[in-house]
């Protein structure tokens, strides 16, 4: 195997407010939103209503990607 990368992901992340982020991902026509919900919001003392509602966290996406 050569040492050249075969793929380099092109992702752009925008911080909206507090833990709310908008991610622009390859092959996705619409942005994906990351935020907090339930126990995560409670742990960080964030009311999801103040950031546009609950959203899946980055941890949720990591677990989902590893489970596939």
Describe the protein's topology.
Elements: E1 12-17, E2 20-24, E3 32-34, H1 38-44, H2 58-67
Antiparallel strand pairs: 1-2, 2-3
Characterise the protein shown here:
With 68 residues, the protein is an alpha+beta fold. The chain has one domain. The protein is built from 2 helices and 3 strands; from the N terminus they run βββαα. The chain has helices at residues 38-44, 58-67, and strands at residues 12-17, 20-24, 32-34. A 3-stranded antiparallel β-sheet has the order 1-2-3, with no helix packed on it. Strand 1 and strand 2 form a beta hairpin. It is elongated. It starts with 11 loop residues before the first strand and ends with a helix. The model has no long low-confidence stretch (mean pLDDT 93).
Characteristic terms for this protein:
elongated; alpha+beta; 68 residues
Q: Shape, please?
A: elongated
Strand proportion? 15-25%
* Mean pLDDT figure: 93
Uncertain segments of ≥5 residues (pLDDT<50)? none
- Measured as a percent range, the helix fraction is 25-40%
Classify the oligomer.
Answer: single chain
Order of helices and strands: EEEHH
Largest sheet: 3 strands, antiparallel
User: What's the domain count?
Assistant: 1
- Give the helix/strand class: alpha+beta
The order of strands across the largest sheet is 1-2-3
Specify Rg, calculated over alpha carbons.
15 Å
Q: Helical segment tally?
A: 2
């Amino acid at each position: 195997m050569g040492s050249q990368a075969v793929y380099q992901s092109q992702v752009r992340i925008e911080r909206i407010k507090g833990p709310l982020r908008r991610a622009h991902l390859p092959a996705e026509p619409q942005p994906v939103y990351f935020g907090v919900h339930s126990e995560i919001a409670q742990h960080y003392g964030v009311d999801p209503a103040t950031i546009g509602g609950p959203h899946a966290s980055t941890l949720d996406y990591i677990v989902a990607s590893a489970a596939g």
